[in-house]
Write a structure and sequence with these properties.
It is built from 9 helices and 6 strands, in the order βαααααβαβαβαββα. It is α/β, with parallel strands linked by helices. Strand 2, helix 6 and strand 3 form a beta-alpha-beta unit. Helix 3 crosses helix 4. The longest helix has 18 residues. The N and C termini lie close together (7 Å). The site of magnesium ion has 9 residues, from loops.
Length: 220
């Protein structure tokens, strides 16, 4: 591996835990409009997947026929209003364990830091978590294909003009790990899911010891 120049982070489930809030917002929306209580097992299909794609997956699994795109967008916006309310009090206490140590290490070692999230709420959350100063670039997911397409990660790579071999990326979702691997980037999987395609898999970022990160960054 080459020396690493850029680290790309997913947001939800890596930097902060919003999975519960995202799914709760969908649950409230489905109860209100369709009288359906979403099965918790469906949560996994929405992880790392854009708002509209998540909605479509949930509609399909709930056997709700809805193909009016205007209505889909309107209800997805309503979910976002509920979601924004649920995360309105997120602050720096909501940063996942281990994240700050890693960000500080990367900064001190001149590794660029980017955010590669499918969430349009990412800039808002990064601001509220008081992490803005760490990020050299935040990918705008608008008009990008949803993960597992590599688009979001490649956007960050091309922004800096680097080669995918000079990049590492962190993800908690299967779709996200696939997106990283589709971009030919070294993938660090985080969290409880299997993430079998990840190059390294950790339960939590607090388990990523700095000497290990150091050897990854140096390309040893
Ligand atoms: C993240 C979450 C997904 C969510 C997506 C879009 O990837 O893991 O569950 O659907 O972001 O989020 P947004 O905030 O734009 O609705
Ligand atoms: Mg995620």
């Amino acid at each position: 591996m080459k020396k690493i120049k850029l680290a790309i982070f997913d947001l939800d489930g890596v930097i902060t835990s919003t999975t519960e809030e995202h799914f709760k917002a969908w649950t409230l929306l489905f109860i209100k409009h369709f009288g359906i209580r979403l099965d918790q097992n469906l949560e996994v299909y929405t992880k790392g997947v854009s708002r509209i794609e998540s909605f479509k997956v949930l509609l399909k699994h709930s056997r709700v026929d809805l193909d009016d795109m205007k209505l889909i967008e309107c209800l997805a916006n309503e979910k976002n209003v509920i979601y924004k309310d649920l995360i309105s009090e997120f602050d720096e206490t909501k940063i996942c364990p281990g994240v700050l140590d890693i960000l500080n290490y990367l900064k001190q070692n001149n590794v660029k830091i980017a955010l590669g999230s499918a969430s349009k709420n990412a800039p808002y959350l990064i601001r509220n978590l008081k992490l803005e100063d760490y990020f050299d670039y935040i990918v705008d997911p608008t008009h990008k294909r949803s993960k597992p397409s590599p688009d979001i990660f490649l956007d960050a790579v091309y922004h800096f003009g680097y080669n995918p071999e000079e990049v590492i990326a962190f993800e908690d979702a299967e779709a996200g790990i696939k997106a990283i691997k589709n971009a030919n980037i070294f993938a660090i999987g985080v969290g409880d899911e299997d993430l079998k395609d990840a190059d390294i898999k950790l339960r939590s970022l607090k388990n990523l010891e700095i000497p290990i990160l150091e050897s990854i960054i140096r390309g040893n």
